[in-house]
Predict the structure.
Amino acid sequence: MRVLVTNDDGAAAEGLHRLAAFAADRGMDVLAVAPEGEASGSGTSRAVPADGLVRTGTRRFDGTLVHTVAGPPALIVTLACQGLWGEPPDLVLSGINPGANLGSSVLHSGTVGAALTAARFGLPGVAVSIDLGAVLHWETALLALAEVLPLARPLVVLNVNAPNVPPERLRGVRAVGLADEPAVRLSAVRIGPDLIKIGYQETDTADTACTTDPPGDVAALAAGYATVTALSGVRADPAVVLPANGVRR
């Protein structure tokens, strides 16, 4: 199986190298392609310069060959599926992102955007993230990934989030829905007539008792579980019936 490993944190990110090694250890043919630098928050953007020229390159990190692209991860998935680096992939793994992608924030995540773009090409896509901390327990995220990877199917997008705890403290892996509120919310403050400062604030939606059944992803992660959520990607909703001639143009 040929697997594309990508991320939104750039070619030098440790999470990318960990994910590539995970796939290689399982006998997969690994194609690692990542943005040149930081591309967080790019969602499913495939933005390119006005002249259409996109810079590419190659770098090696402790034995891992990574192709680089001056563009976001969704663009990378598109290029790989079009055969820009040889045979197109059979699977897309995106991550490991430092920082969980939960609730409605999946809409904006470049990590998740890469997996959603894989579904656009009929492939299985898996986005993997780990909660933040002073020390990142990458092995816990990979343990959760190993458990859910057999669930990967064409057109299925799996969003996996792991708590930042040692593997022995992982309480298990739960299939959950998206929380109504994200774990973090963008905040903006004007600090001058022509300048806005943007940051992120944690929300108070995490129910650490994990009492809802089933719990949302924010609550389950806060309770020490790794979470997996199946995302449907972009689909028309047959349940919504629009009038054939009643929509203004």
Summary: Residues 205-212 have pLDDT under 50 and may be disordered. Residues 14-25 form the longest helix (12 residues).
